[in-house]
Amino acid sequence: MDAILSFALASMKIVGAVLLTRLLIENGQIWQEDRFLRDHTLIVADGVVRALQPADAVRARPGDRRVDSRGAYVIPGLVDLHVHGSNDCDVMDATAASLSGLSAFLVRQGVTSYLGTTMTESAEKIEAALAAMRNFMERPYSPLLGIHLEGPFLNRDFRGSQAEEHLRPPRREEYLPWFAAGHIKLITMAPELPGGEELMRDACAHGVTVAIGHSGASYAAAQGYFARGASQVTHTFNGMVGIHHRQPGFFVAAIERPETTFQVIADGVHVHPAVLRMLLRLVGGERLLAITDAMRAAGLPDGRFALGERRVTVKDGVSRSDDGRLAGSTLTMDQALKNLMRFCDLTLAEALPMVTRAPARAIGVYPRKGSLQAGADADIVFWDEELGPRATMIGGALIEPAPDPCIAATADV
Ligand SMILES: [Zn+2]
Hints:
Layout lengths: L13 E3 L5 E5 L2 E4 L2 E3 L2 E6 L2 E7 L10 E4 L4 E4 L1 E6 L1 E2 L2 E2 L5 H13 L2 E7 L5 H15 L6 E7 L21 H9 L3 E6 L6 H10 L3 E4 L6 H9 L2 E4 L15 H7 L5 E5 L7 H11 L4 E4 L11 E5 L2 E6 L2 E4 L11 H12 L3 H4 L5 H6 L17 E4 L5 E6 L2 E3 L5 H4 L2 E2 L1
Parallel strand pairs: 2-7, 3-8, 9-12, 12-13, 13-14, 14-15, 15-16, 16-17, 17-18
Antiparallel strand pairs: 1-24, 2-5, 3-4, 5-6, 7-25, 8-22, 10-11, 19-20, 20-21, 22-23, 23-24
Helix pairs in contact: 3-4, 5-6
The structure holds zinc ion (ZN).
């Protein structure tokens, strides 16, 4: 048996770090891109998926360990591109303890990769959050994959619950050092601001995916933005100019470019289920990215919470600022997946790409993330048939909590 490694991520503990031996994941229904396969064995070594083989073709070697995943779905870890916090933690707290609490919570819901999402704040606060996230990402088995900069370069008229007093036009002296320090994978911005086009170009040059959001960009202007680097729409239909049949707005320009993707807060509140179904019919599951946009109240009972420098009230799981605006969500990714299935009448296999492959591809990390192909990181979620979590693995290491008979049955060969 491998020595059990205790793990620095406070409440996350690695219960089976299996870096030198092979793991044979057996007896489950194993996801392969568009379907589940039975009677196959997924072979993991050195934190990476090595192969998928028919069970009767696998030759166990001395030192191999078996993971009996009978009765479980074996799926790639979920990818959330837009999450501010959960579990009374927020990335703007800018502390390792908060990132640890957030990570532990997300891993429990099956999220193995997330972009810590900042909010519109002073430069000092944003820089503190960026620094804390950069440090936290260096930890082994951290699910924090990178940073999503939401603001501060947003359009005041579509700010939602972003802090108005900190909105500002982009200045290179401010943002270039942020990009240069690395790890920013996604920016939500309003390209119509003065300096917006230059910001878009600079972001692209640093390998940052550009999402248009909190924006009033017109259809005509947005055709140019999407042609010159923008490739995503942030929390579609929220914090953006709507569609008018004579003034289509940037949403319609995004629809018309096949490579553009659409974040959706799939809680049934931010976007009505009927509109979610419409969007899915328009763009298909490969362009639709389920996100949570969750804030610190996710996972907690209703109450009053901080969101940046202001207070919000969560009632029946819906978070609003005192002026009545929706202010983040309390959604979790596993619930987002279940909602997609329910709202759009989809099977698990039909909905799964929208929480795995599509978001991973949208920031250029597929198939290393969002896939269980050979060569992918062994970020694996084990769910029972009701989609209840049994265990989560990051980089081939089984992470607590969720000890379950199916997973506890790992055994030396
Ligand atoms: Zn937002």
